[in-house]
Amino acid sequence: MSDFAKIPSFDLTRNYARVKEEINVAVLRVLDTQHFILGSEVEALEKELSSYLEVKETIGCASGTDSLVLAMMTLDLKPGDEVITTPFTFFATASCITRCGGTPVFADVDPSTYNIKSEEILSKVTPRTRAVLPVHLFGQMCPLEEIKSELKARGIVLVEDCAQAIGAHRIIGGRIARSGSVGDIGCFSFFPTKNLGCYGDGGLVSVPEDETLASRIRRLRVHGAGETYMHEEVGINSRLDALQAAILRVRLRHLEGWNEERRIVAERYETLFAEKGLLEFVTPPVEAEGGRHVFHQYVIRAARRDELQKFLASRGVTTRVYYPLPLHMQKCFSYLGYKKGDLPAAEMLSDEVLALPMFPELLPEEQERIVSDIAKFYGKA
Hints:
Blueprint: H1 12-33, H2 40-53, E1 57-61, H3 64-73, E2 82-85, H4 92-99, E3 103-106, H5 118-123, E4 129-133, H6 148-153, E5 157-161, E6 169-172, E7 175-178, E8 185-189, E9 203-207, H7 211-220, E10 225-227, E11 230-231, H8 242-252, H9 255-275, E12 282-283, E13 291-292, E14 298-302, H10 305-314, H11 344-352, E15 353-356, H12 364-377
Parallel strand pairs: 2-3, 2-4, 4-5, 5-8
Antiparallel strand pairs: 1-9, 6-7, 6-13, 8-9, 10-11, 12-14, 14-15
C-alpha cells in the first residue's frame, strides 16, 4: 500500500459538495411530481440546451451511446455504406456504425490535437461514403469548417461526436460555433464524469437546422412511435428520465464556470512542466488556433509512459490511458482488414498518451505534487 495521499483522476464528491443544495431542491421537485420519464423536466432541459448550443432542437435520450445510435439510424444505412471516423476514440463511436449496418472507415489523427485530420477524412471519401463522424476528443473541437462545405456538396452527412466536448467552440465566420452546432447532428453524453454530467446515464442529440430530422429522432427514441402505440418505424427505447434532467438543469448553470476552471488547471500544468524542465519528456496538449478547449481530459504524451504510470500509482496519483489500442487494431474490427502501421499517428498516441488528474476542484498543491513526482521519475527533481 502507498503511504502517499491519494490524488484521484476525477473526484465527483468535491463537485457535488458545491451544488448539493441546488441538486436536492431539483430532485425533490421531481419526486413531488412522481413523473419520472421524459415530461416537463426533460422538455425544459432540451429548451435550455438548444439555447445554449444555439441549435434548432435537442432531444434527450438514455445515454451517449444511444445518441450516436439514434444519429446513425437516421442514415438508413445499407450493407456496404461507409461512415468515416477516427480510430482514436471510445469504442461506441465505431460500434454505433456497425450496429446500424454500416462499415466504419478509419482516418488517421493529428498527433498534436489528437483529433481526426480533415485531409485524412477527405482522402477516405468514396461513392459509398454516407457520413463522417468526427470526435471532438478530450474537450477540443475538430476544425469542421475545413470540410463542411465539401461534404455538403457531396451529400455526405456530418455527425459530431461531442461526448467529451460540451462547451467547446470554434470561431467560424467571426462567430462562436459550439460543438454540436456545426454538423447536421450532434451527439452528447452526460456520463457522470463528463464536463456536464448527470448522476446516472444520459445523452442528447442536437439538430442545428432540420426540424423534420429532429422529429424523426424524437420518434426513434420511443420505439418509432409518433402517437402512443402507433409505430411509424422500428425505433429503440432511449428516454432521458426526469431526475437526470433536473440534475442536468442545475449543473448546466455552472458549466461555463467549471469549464473555465478546467482551463486554469490545464494552464497551471503547462506552467509547472516548463518550470520543472520537463518539456523534453512530456508533450502537453495543444489548443488549436481558433478554438476553445474545455479539457474534459488533460492528456499528455510521455516518454516511457507505462513506467511513468506505474511510478505515479506507487505515489498515490491515479492516471489513465485513453486509449491503449486504437479501434482499427481491435479484434472485433479485424474483418475490416487493417494492419499495424496503417494509421501511424493513432498507433503512436496509443503508446504515449497519459491522462493526468483533471477536474475543476483539483488543488494547485495537488498539481504541484503530481508534476514534482513526474520530475522525480525523469530525474529532474
